[in-house]
Structures are given as structure tokens and as C-alpha cells.
Write a structure and sequence with these properties.
single chain; about 550 residues; five-stranded mixed β-sheet; 14 strands; disordered N terminus; disordered C terminus; HATPase_C_sf; ATP-binding
């Protein structure tokens, strides 16, 4: 089956492979340069050979004009083919291999010529310049064809102008010299072309390896797809070169970081300023799913090195998920609190029912008042010190659970936590795990007590949870943060040793730390430091936001 015309046109056109295209273009460029250089060399060479031929003709003419026999013969003999002027001129012509030597008088009449029939006739080209006493060099065409000419005036012994001498060098001899040079020049040009072709092949091979032998159309399509993908995904992408400079930002990265195209070509320290976000992008902080704060946004960052020594960092906006996280954690905290309160409420209802059946109405009223007052005082004490609603709800619920287990849970008087947490869900996880761990440690011990302290130092939150339990031995203070390590028997449905390891992992992910020491009363004191855990303070209340209510006593 013969190929279609369109297939033949495609086959005869530009090859698709990058290697072939680059090689073809490089060889074409090398050939063009060789031809251009050859032409640039031949052009001045031709002019130089012409000039040398004219200078030689002029030198022969000057030598002939200085011969005294020529001037004497011109003055004393007629212009004949056997005259002394013709004989002397022919002798000089044969000796110098000139094409012709013409001696003429002031009336333009020839006294010598290689063709004897031309003697006594008027010259074909004007000798006015030479008869005016000037030396003339030119390329012209006469009776013998095109020649390089030299013309000089002819003087007698008394230096009187009596005629002129015209000498011609055959132009074909000049051309022959030029042509004789061309093979050697072409040999050099061919050598240069071969070297250029070899260099073109090496370059094409390197390009082939770097482009993985893709066609230019494929590379263009990949770039177009990459641009569409980078600017279409809902994840920030920042690419850095081997020098640590930003070389690419997609639209989402510009939005999350609050920077524009002016950041391209600069290092993160200059483009973003100091902070944890800069440290993560620059690679000074390593890890996966690193939490960082940029303005009022909470970002989850990951950084991956590339083969060329650079890196690509991805950024995900966690701020938009915060509301859902708050609602979910609030629901979980409420369920835990309701579960504990359900059991406590049943006991209290039974007590109240017994008082009513015994007709001890005053005691029943007093009992109800005490129960309601205790709950109100506990809630007001917590919300006064911890203004974040999610964390306050957790502590109120944990207090109820602690009471059910016979443990006193207190919030330290030194605690002050504003409602500006960047990651309340993470702090709820940390506080919940530490409080649960403390409740397990003090359960069943006399005068069991757990104290929670939340303080703010700038934008850093410092959390301390103290208990009156047996404490943690010195040799186990690092092991307690190891995943899977626990002093308690693992339940059937899962495994223990996850809570404290999760606490440390969350703290380190935010650039903080988690440690354990001995409390003042002999129990354990867990300390968690969370840098940049607070957002920027608001100057004005947000839309629809009301000031925090003050505690009221009823």
C-alpha cells in the first residue's frame, strides 16, 4: 500500500524528534557559517588580487617608460611593426609576461601592440589621464578583452611629455589565481563544517537525554498541561531552584502567602520575611504535614527535594476546615460530658426522689440548689480563664468526668487563654489526652487532684497539666512519648500508648515541644510549648461577633 500524499509530506518535512531537529538545525547553522566565512574571505581576496595585478601592470609601465630607447624611437621613427619602439616593447612584454604593452603618442596613435595590425591606429580606450601626467590603474575591457591596466606618462630626455605607456595583465590569470586558492579554502571550510557537525551531534544527544527524546510538540503540550494543572488545583505550589530562590508560584500559593510575581527570583527570607513559614519553605524545618501560620491562615506544608538540587513545597489551607473541626470536636466533647452527666444525673434524681418521698422538702430544695450552683460555678470559673469555647467546653466536660471518678479537676488561677487560637482542634487533642492520662494516673488514689494551667507568652501557648499520682520515673520520661509504650494493659478493641505520642507529634509539628517532669506535690507535670499558637489580635469585633459575656452570680 503506497503512502498517502499527506504522509509523504509529513515524512519530507521537519522531523518530529527533538534529537533530529536539533541536529538538523545545528548542521544547517554550521554549513551556513562555513559558506558565509568562505564568502567573506573570497571577497577581499578577489579585490586584493585585482589590486596586485594593477600594481604589477603599473610597475611594468613605469619600467617601460624609463627605457630611453622607447622615447628616442617615438621621436625619431614612424609607427611600424619593425620599428625600434615595437621591438623594445615586445621584448619587455615577453620578459614580464604582460598581455600587452602599448606605446602611444600625444595623438593617441599606437606605436606598439602585440597585434601588429593595430600599430598606427587610435587606441580603443581614452589615455587622457596618462597624457595629463597622471598614473592610472584600472580594470577595463579593450581590443584584447578584459585586463588589469596600468598607464603612465612618457617623457623625453628633457622631461617633456611626448606620449604614454599602457600595460595590461590578462584578467583570466587573476581569476585563475583566485580559483587555485578555492580548493584549499574549501578544505578548511569542510573541516570546520565537520567539527561543527560533530559538536551539533553531541549537543543534540545531550538535549535528547534531557528531554527524554520527546518531540517539541509533546514538550509544548506538557508545559501547557502543567500550567493548567498548577493554576487550577486548590493547593499552593512553590518551586525553588538549587540556590534557594523562588522560581514558580501558582495562583493558590500567591493567595495563601499574600505575595505576587515580585517574589519570583528571590529567596523566601526576602520575599516572606522571618517566620516559621519561611523556615519550612527554605528547608530549615523538616518533616511532613508541618503546621505554619501566615497572617490569619493556618497552612499545612510539605517540602520535597528535586533532582536538580531545588525543592517543591505544597501548601494546604486548613483555615477553611476549622469550623467543621470545631463542630465535630464540640460534639465529641458534649457526648463525653453527657455520658458522665447521665450517670450522675440518675444518682441525683434518685436522691431527690427519696427526699420527696420522705417529705423532706426543705432538704430537697437545698440539694437542688447546691447541685445547680456547683455546675454554674464550675462553668463560670472555666470560661472566665479559658475564652476559647471549644476548649472551655472540653474542660467543663472533663471536670464532670473527673468528678464521677472521684478526682478534683481544677483550672489554675494563673490560666489566661484568649479566643485567638490558630489551631483549637490541635490544642483540644493535646489537652484531652493529657487530662485523660492524668485522670488514669490518679484514679483510686487518696486526695486525687488534676490541675490544668494555660498561659500565653506573646503568641506562644504554654500548657501544664499536674497530677497527684505516682509520677514518671526519670528513666521512662522519654519512653512515655513513644508510640505503643504504656504501663497499662492494652484493651481488646485497640492498643495503648498513642495519646502521649500524639501529643508530642502535634507539638513538634507546630515547632514546639512536649516534656514531663516531677510536680511540686510529687506527681507528674507535663509541659507542652506551642509557638505561634495564637493569631493576630483583632482590633475590632468581626461581623456578627459579640463581646464575651462577663460572669454573673445568681
Amino acid at each position: 500500500m503506497s503512502p498517502t500524499p499527506s504522509a509523504r509530506r509529513l515524512r519530507l518535512g521537519m522531523p518530529r524528534r527533538v534529537f533530529s531537529q536539533v541536529l538538523l538545525m545545528q548542521v544547517t547553522i554550521a554549513a551556513g557559517v562555513a559558506v558565509l566565512v568562505t564568502g567573506l574571505f573570497l571577497a577581499p581576496l578577489s579585490k586584493q588580487l585585482d589590486h596586485e595585478a594593477m600594481r604589477r601592470a603599473l610597475a611594468i609601465a613605469e619600467t617601460t617608460a624609463q627605457d630611453p630607447q622607447i622615447a628616442q624611437g617615438l621621436l625619431t621613427t614612424p609607427p611600424t611593426k619593425d620599428g625600434p619602439v615595437q621591438q623594445e616593447a615586445e621584448r619587455i612584454r615577453r620578459a614580464t609576461h604582460a598581455e600587452y604593452i602599448v606605446v602611444l603618442d600625444r595623438h593617441w596613435v599606437r606605436w606598439s601592440h602585440p597585434t601588429t595590425s593595430q600599430i598606427g591606429r587610435i587606441v580603443s580606450t581614452s589615455p587622457s589621464g596618462a597624457l595629463a601626467g597622471k598614473e592610472v590603474m584600472e580594470i577595463d575591457r579593450g581590443t584584447l578583452g578584459r585586463s588589469a591596466r596600468g598607464k603612465v606618462p612618457l617623457y623625453d630626455a628633457h622631461h617633456r611629455l611626448i606620449g604614454a605607456v599602457s600595460v595590461g595583465i590578462a584578467y583570466d590569470s587573476v581569476r585563475a589565481r583566485l580559483i587555485s586558492v578555492i580548493p584549499g579554502l574549501l578544505a578548511y571550510a569542510g573541516g570546520a563544517l565537520a567539527v561543527g557537525a560533530l559538536a551539533a551531534w553531541l549537543i543534540a544527544r545531550r538535549v535528547q537525554r534531557q528531554t527524554r527524546d520527546l518531540a517539541f510538540s509533546d514538550i509544548s503540550a506538557l508545559l501547557a498541561e502543567r500550567e493548567a494543572m498548577l493554576h487550577g488545583i486548590r493547593e499552593g505550589v512553590v518551586a525553588l531552584d538549587r540556590g534557594g530562590r523562588i522560581r514558580l508560584l501558582n495562583d493558590e500559593a500567591r493567595r495563601l502567602l499574600g505575595i505576587g510575581d515580585e517574589a519570583v527570583g528571590r529567596v523566601p527570607d526576602d520575599a516572606l520575611g522571618e517566620g516559621r513559614t519561611t523556615d519550612v519553605l527554605a528547608g530549615r524545618v523538616t518533616g511532613t504535614d508541618l503546621l505554619t501560620v501566615r497572617g490569619r491562615r493556618v497552612l499545612v506544608a510539605n517540602r520535597m527535594p528535586t533532582d536538580d538540587g531545588g525543592a517543591v513545597a505544597t501548601l494546604r489551607d486548613r483555615t477553611e476546615l476549622e469550623q467543621l473541626g470545631r463542630e465535630l470536636d464540640s460534639t465529641r466533647g458534649l457526648i463525653d460530658a453527657l455520658r458522665a452527666q447521665d450517670h450522675e444525673h440518675a444518682n441525683r434524681m434518685h436522691t431527690l426522689l427519696g427526699l420527696l418521698e420522705l417529705e423532706m422538702y426543705d432538704d430537697a430544695v437545698e440539694f437542688v440548689g447546691e447541685v445547680v450552683g456547683d455546675h454554674r460555678v464550675t462553668a463560670e470559673q472555666v470560661t472566665e480563664k479559658v475564652q476559647d469555647p471549644l476548649l472551655a467546653a472540653l474542660l467543663v466536660g472533663k471536670a464532670t468526668v473527673a468528678a464521677e471518678r472521684g478526682v478534683a479537676l481544677w483550672v489554675s488561677e494563673r490560666s489566661r487563654l484568649p479566643d485567638r487560637l490558630v489551631d483549637p482542634r490541635g490544642l483540644v487533642t493535646v489537652v484531652g489526652n493529657l487530662v485523660d492520662n492524668a485522670l488514669d494516673a490518679v484514679a483510686g488514689t487518696p486526695h486525687a487532684r488534676v490541675e490544668v494551667e494555660l498561659r500565653v507568652e506573646g503568641r506562644t501557648v504554654v500548657l501544664r497539666v499536674r497530677d497527684t499520682g505516682p509520677g514518671v520515673p526519670v528513666d521512662q520520661r522519654e519512653l512515655v512519648f513513644t508510640e505503643g509504650w504504656s504501663t497499662k494493659r492494652a484493651p481488646v478493641h485497640g492498643k495503648r500508648g498513642l495519646g502521649l505520642s500524639l501529643v508530642r507529634r502535634l507539638a513538634e509539628r507546630q515547632g514546639g515541644s512536649a516534656t514531663v517532669d516531677t510536680a511540686g506535690g510529687g506527681g507528674a507535670e507535663f509541659t507542652v510549648v506551642l509557638p505561634e499558637a495564637l493569631g493576630e489580635p483583632e482590633l475590632e469585633p468581626g461581623p456578627g461577633r459579640q463581646p464575651e459575656p462577663t460572669a454573673r452570680n445568681s
